[in-house]
Structures are given as structure tokens and as C-alpha cells.
Amino acid sequence: MISSLKQPASFSHGSYFLTSRTNLVTPGCLPVLPSLRLPRISVVSLSKPLHIGAPPIERKRKELSTSIGCSAYEADRSEPVADARSESARKIKIGIYFATWWSLNVVFNIYNKKVLNAYPYPWLTSTLSLAAGSLIMLVSWALRIAETPKTDLEFWKSLFPVAVAHTIGHVAATVSMSKVAVSFTHIIKSGEPAFSVLVSRFILGETFPPAVYLSLIPIIGGCGLSALTELNFNMIVALNHVVSGYLRLLVDSEGFCLLVCFFMSMSKGFMGAMISNLAFVFRNIFSKKGMKGKSVSGMNYYACLSMLSLVILTPFAIAVEGPQMWAAGFQQAFSDIGPQIVWWMAAQSVFYHLYNQVSYMSLDEISPLTFSIGNTMKRISVIVSSIIIFQTPVQPVNALGAAIAVLGTFLYSQNYPPLCKEVKTGEARKLQLKRVKHGVLESGSRAKSALFTGALKTLIRMRNLHVIALFEPRISGIQADRTIRRIGLPNSYREEANGFSGGIWLLWDDHWHIEILETTSQYIHCRIWV
């Protein structure tokens, strides 16, 4: 997407400049933002608005206007055939990512449940998963298969709270799956959006559109219905065992112990999934707050997260379970299953890392909204496949609850605004920007191109600019961080907003003023003046 501006353009040094009259009068209705006196080192006149972007080819110059409208190529309907082919190839690539992501996740859950059934030590199982991923990435970096990340102490400090939350969520989910069916754990984990909204609302003070709150009703209701029916079904099975097996005994100690153990197992399974939901919500919050602008790609970010989580988890795993329990349990599992248990443990560890790695790689190509939808569909594939493979008995009411919960999660992903307020398509509205100073505006998918990056590097070095960027479905946050890293801009701020078809870059210094008047799904209407 390349922005179209109602201004004549002249070209220079890989960028094109919007010319305007120097005696442009500032409209009285527009607020003049306070200016910051920065060094005036420039190759262009500072008395004219400046637009930075990849130059369009053979674009017709349009009439001069005091208002500058920035619109997507979709609005102009002038997208080249090459871009259309590139977009089709990108969609195929994303489809392959999604199919691989879901398949690897299904395989991991199957082997993970097999291991936990034969070797019920979830703390060690969780540790092995993180260890395998760490080893894979260390080998990849050593052999130069993957680019080695450049990190510093500040990066690891920012990553630490994320790793703590990730460790808690990972262990809690594994404990849950060791106690209850895989399908039940994932049904409860589909309620994670409810935790996200509640934490954001009551702890962070964020507000959401009514549609977001309404989408929580089917999520909470579906999870509650599934949990209740699962509990009732297993209670009936346990009570039937007690009554039918020991009718002649007044006090059935074995049956009673079985029932008590069942309730403890169910409570651990349910609470494990709930704790996992809460931990992953805080992981996402810490990640957003602490990792903005960090120079690590999605795959390497997850690798560093796994390594730090492994360091955190290992001493706790030893304290809770310990080598003696692990050795005794392995001997029992080896005698029951045979050498196959080793393959199961290795497979679940490797596939855990692979499915997470692919999910982070897909996040490099898509928006958080599309990623959340893919995550919803992933849960469906896991629930259905686990029911089929493990032949988990499912009551109609249980299946209905699962369907309602997943549907609610999908509706939530459609209505949840990452940082900006959600509006309906085509509806004009004010665009609320934070930390807006002065500057120029760039809109387009070429914001991540090498030409655009080079132009920004030169301009920022010569003009001491600050940057703010809004990103939409075509440009993910990780791609934004990559561009910012290539530019070499340490202090940047990024917003993610729904309703646009491409990214919006805003660059500011002390000589320009801008007011965003309104936006729709196709354009941004703004005024830029000196």
C-alpha cells in the first residue's frame, strides 16, 4: 500500500517531497502543538511540509490542497499486477504457516498426553520441552542456520518478567493436561480472552467497546458449561464404581479414596488451566510493555524466552519432584511401555518448540488480530483430534459448551482493539494518537522496504527526528521493530489500530504541525502545515 497525497511531488535522493506555499495560514480551528527546538540541519526547506515514502512510478500529480488525504491503494484501485502476485504468494505462505502450526501443535499435544499418562511428572516434562527448544536454537546459531540475536543486559531485564509468566503458564498447562483430558484443558484455556479483558480493565484501567464485553458472555458460559458437564460425567463414573463394586460394604475405603483422588485430580486440572490463562495474559502484558523496539526477531525472541524460562524452571522442578522420583518413575514407565517412552519424551519436547517457533514466525507475517483467529482455530483442531485419538467420551452438552466457548473467542478476536478504539468499517472518526508532536506522515506497506529505510536513516541522522507508527494487518509489530532497528532509532513508539489496510508512519520534528481530522477504512484525512 502506497499513500496518495493531494499534493504535487518532487523527487530527491530516493524520497519525494511535498511542496507547499510558505505563507500557508494555519486554520484557527486547528490546535498548534508546542514546538521543540531541535538542530536545523537539513537539505530541504524547513518551511514546507515533508512527506517521506517510496516514490510511486508515473503517478499523476494532483492539485494543491491545504488538506492532505492519505489513502490506501485499495481506495485508488491502482495496485500493480506484481503487487497482486506478491500478495497472493504471501497469502499462500501464511496458509502454509498456519497449517504447519496447527499440525505441529496437534502432534505435540498427543505425545505430551501419552508421556504424562505413562510418566506423570509434569514439572520434568515442562523442563524437557524448554531444554529441547534451547538446544535446538543454540545449535542453529552455532551452525549459522539462524541469525544470532544481538542482546544486552537491558534486553534480558525486560525479558525476565515475561519469562516468569511464561514459565508459570507452561507448567500450569502441563499439570492440567496430566490430570484431565487434553480437550478439557483446551476448552478451559479458550477462556483466556476473558482474563485478558478483566486484567486490562481492573488492573491496567483500560476500557473496551461494548462488543468486547458481550463476546465474553459466550466464552465464560461455554467454558463453564463444559467444565460443569465434565465434572458431572466423571463424578457419575466414580460414584458408579464405588456403588457397583462395593455394595456389600458399609464403608468402602478404597472407593472413597478413589473418589477423593478424583476430586483432587479434577481440581488440579481445572485450576492448572485457569492459572495458565492468567499467567499467559500477564506474559502478553509484560511483553508489550517491556519489549517495544527490542532488536530481536520473532523466532529468536521465543528462543531467548525459552532459555531464560529454562533457567527459572529447573531449580523449582528439582525441588518439587526431584531426581529420585524421576528415576523411579522412568523405570516404571520403561517397564510398562518399553523404549518407546524415550521416543515419546523426545517427540513432545521437540514438537513443543517447533510449534511455538512456527507460531512466532507466522506472527512476523500477520497482524495480532489474524494471529488470535489462528490461535482460536488451533484450539479447535487440538480438541477434535484429541477426542478422536484418545477416544474421550463427550456428552452433547459438553460439545455444545466447547463450541460456544470457541465461538466466543472468535467473536472476541474480531472485536478486540489492540490499542486504539474500534470503529465500524467506513465510519469516520477521530484517530486518538499519543505523544504526537510535529512531523510528516507516511502510509504504506513499503514502510518496511529497503528504499524507505535508507531514506529514513538519512533524514533522522540529519534532522534529529522522532517516530511514531500505526500498524495494521499487512505490517506486524515485529516487522515494525525490524524496520526501527534497521533505521537505528532507539526511542520509538508504536500503536496498533484496527480498520486500516496498511501501516501508517508519522515522523516529527519541531517545524511541522499535523492534525488528524478523521479516518475511515480506506483513508486518513489530516492537515499538515508549517
Automatic annotation (TrEMBL):
Protein localization: Membrane
Ubl conjugation is among the record's keywords: no
Q: How does it sit in the membrane?
A: Multi-pass membrane protein
Key words, A-Z: Membrane, Transmembrane, Transmembrane helix
This entry carries the following GO cellular component terms, namely: membrane
Domain Sugar phosphate transporter, chain residue ranges per copy: 93-237, 268-413
- Indicate yes or no for the key word Transmembrane: yes
What is this protein's name? Sugar phosphate transporter domain-containing protein
Question: Which species expresses this protein natively?
Answer: Salvia splendens
